[in-house]
Amino acid sequence: MERKKLPIGIQTFAKIREEQCYYVDKTPFVAKLASEGGYYFLSR
Questions:
Q1: SS3 at position 37
Q2: pLDDT in tens, 22-34
Q3: Which residues contact 40 (CB under 8 A, 6 or more apart)?
Q4: Rounded to whole angstroms, how far apart are CA atoms 11 and 31?
Q5: Cα 15 from chain centroid?
Q6: For the chain, which residues make up each domain, given as ranges?
Q7: Cβ–Cβ under 8 Å, residues 17 and 25
């Protein structure tokens, strides 16, 4: 089984998908973060 690459230096989602790199979708957490308030740092 081939390991996926980390998207280091890749700036677009399309390129991440084309290169078959790892991608973590943080969308489900946005509503929770917004409702809890406070400050957060979300890294890509």
A1: coil
A2: 988 888 888 888 8
A3: 33
A4: 25
A5: 13
A6: 11-38
A7: no
Q: What is the pLDDT of residue 21?
A: 94
CB contact at 8 A, 27 and 44: no
Which segments of 1-44 does DSSP mark as H helices, in order? Answer: 13-18, 27-36
How far, in Å, CA of 24 to CA of 27, rounded? 9
Q: What gap in Å lies between CA 41 and CA 39, rounded to an integer?
A: 7
Does the pTM of the predicted model rise above 0.85? no
Percent of the chain with pLDDT over 70: 98
